[in-house]
Amino acid sequence: MRSDGSALSLRRWWRSAGFAWAGLLHVYRTQANFRIEVWAAGVALALGWWLQAPLAPVFLSCALVLGLELLNTAVEAVVDVASPGVHPLAKVAKDAAAGAVLLGSLGALGVGATVLLPPLLGRVLGGISP
């Protein structure tokens, strides 16, 4: 579809935002892993807030994992359209996209372990700093 005017157009921005929200809602409704990751992000952010830990690295890690999951879903959809049959390169594309989500998730776990675990252990162990 052609652009309907200036990049600074509020109408254009709202329209683009609507497409983005439609994509987010579709992925949330159809992808169990995305729903799990959304709720895990909520728990991590709430825990960080409760522990008064730095929220920026937790927020960025959550955004990274969710963004990668959205891209993984997009890659899978495009590959399914382009190659409805079994093809070795289609498998490579899907596996690589899933690998990106896995790598981002492991990184997010590392951030959680370094940012959230020490203050959590301090609270659980009665104020003893690890």
From TrEMBL:
Its main location: membrane. Keywords: ATP-binding, Cell membrane, Kinase, Lipid biosynthesis, Lipid metabolism, Membrane, Nucleotide-binding, Phospholipid biosynthesis, Phospholipid metabolism, Transferase, Transmembrane, Transmembrane helix. The chain crosses the membrane at residues 12-28, 99-121. It comes from the Bacteria. Gene3D superfamilies: 1.10.287.3610. It is found in: Cell membrane. It is a multi-pass membrane protein. InterPro entries: DAGK (IPR000829), DAGK_sf (IPR036945), UDPK (IPR033717). The keyword Nucleotide-binding applies. Belongs to the bacterial diacylglycerol kinase family. This is Diacylglycerol kinase. It comes from Deinococcus navajonensis. GO terms for molecular function: kinase activity.
